[in-house]
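Milestone 3.1: sequence recovery, worked example.
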């Protein structure tokens, strides 16, 4: 059984931090034995969520936690910020919705890439929790 790397919290303030978070997600998943396709899915999801943090909230954080359990392993990533929040989550999760003239693909695309996706938002706290999982 591969041992997970210790939990890692990355402050998200600049575009460089997006790259750091993306690499860290890839490394954590590789270490637990996730294949390349899974690593890329998680890295892409982390890069979309952290890009949103910079774009809409200015700054935030990204926490990466790997774990083994009885019948498999998982990586959970929590991306949060203290920005203005998302007024209508259903709308924000719809393909093509963007308040910035973007593609509106970040949140719905991320949701499709991972095994678990949970989002909550209010003014002052937006939190997205994602997880990929692998059975042994
Ligand atoms: N952390 C956040 N804080 C506040 N609003 C957010 C946050 N993340 C997303 N949003 C809102 O949800 C909308 C949809 O986000 P999503 O990432 O899907 O698309 P986008 O960022 O507009 O375009 P792109 O396809 O380039 O990511 C955003 O336009 C923005 O209004
Ligand atoms: Mg986006």
């Amino acid at each position: 059984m591969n041992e997970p790397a210790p939990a890692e919290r990355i402050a998200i303030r600049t575009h460089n931090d997006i790259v750091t978070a993306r690499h860290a997600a890839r490394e954590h998943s590789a270490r637990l034995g996730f294949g390349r396709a899974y690593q890329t899915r998680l890295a892409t999801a982390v890069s979309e969520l952290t890009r949103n943090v910079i774009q809409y909230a200015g700054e935030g954080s990204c926490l990466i936690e790997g774990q083994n359990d009885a019948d498999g392993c998982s990586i959970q990533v929590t991306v949060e910020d203290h920005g203005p929040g998302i007024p209508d989550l259903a709308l924000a999760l719809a393909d093509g919705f963007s308040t910035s003239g973007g593609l509106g693909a970040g949140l719905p695309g991320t949701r499709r890439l991972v095994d678990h996706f949970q989002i909550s938002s209010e003014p002052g706290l937006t939190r997205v929790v994602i997880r990929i999982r692998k059975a042994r």
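The pocket of adenosine-5'-triphosphate (ligand 1) is lined by residues 48, 52-53, 56-57, 81, 83-86, 92, 97-100, 102-108, 126 (CB under 6 Å). The two ends are 9 Å apart (CA to CA).
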